[in-house]
Amino acid sequence: MMQFASFFIKKQLIKIIIICINYSMNLSEIKLNKVARISRVDLHGKVLKRIVELGFCQDSVVSVYAVSPKKKVYLVDIGGDLVALSKNVCDKIEVTNG
């Protein structure tokens, strides 16, 4: 009985770890200099067109280089280029770890 309980607990912990690894968050939630991969861009119209032209599309690798003191502007590294984005735009770009 004890072995089964131990196995069950280990199995649940593995599931939790996998969920945490694949946890998606907004671009504005990434810690500085941590690498993330874009999983979804939830923008429309001219803003979407401009963001895609800058390289912000699915599976692109990004990292937050700097944040303004009031956290309204984010300096994002994408493909070696630094791009300043507002928090509103960053909130609509969904990313996953590395």
What does this structure look like?
The chain is of the alpha+beta class. The chain has one domain: Roll (SH3 type barrels). 34% of the residues lie in helices and 35% in strands. The protein has three helices and six strands; from the N terminus they run H-E-E-H-E-E-E-H-E. Strands 1-6-2-3-4-5 form a six-stranded antiparallel sheet. The radius of gyration is 17 Å and the shape is globular. The protein starts with a helix and ends with a strand. The relative contact order is 0.23. The mean pLDDT is 83.
Short structural summary:
By secondary structure, this protein is α+β, with helices and mostly antiparallel strands.
First and last CA, distance: 39 Å
The CATH topology is given as: SH3 type barrels
Low-confidence stretches: none
- Can you identify the CATH class? Mainly Beta
CATH architectural designation = Roll
Mean pLDDT: 83
Main beta-sheet strand count, sense and barrel state: 6 strands, antiparallel
Beta-strand portion reads: 25-35%
Fourth-level CATH superfamily: Ferrous iron transport protein A (FeoA)
**Nearest-angstrom radius of gyration?**
17 Å
Basic shape: globular
Give keywords.
single chain, alpha+beta, SH3 type barrels, 6 strands, 34% helix, globular
Topology:
Layout: H1 2-21, E1 24-26, E2 35-41, H2 45-53, E3 61-67, E4 73-78, E5 81-86, H3 87-90, E6 93-97
Antiparallel strand pairs: 1-6, 2-3, 2-6, 3-4, 4-5
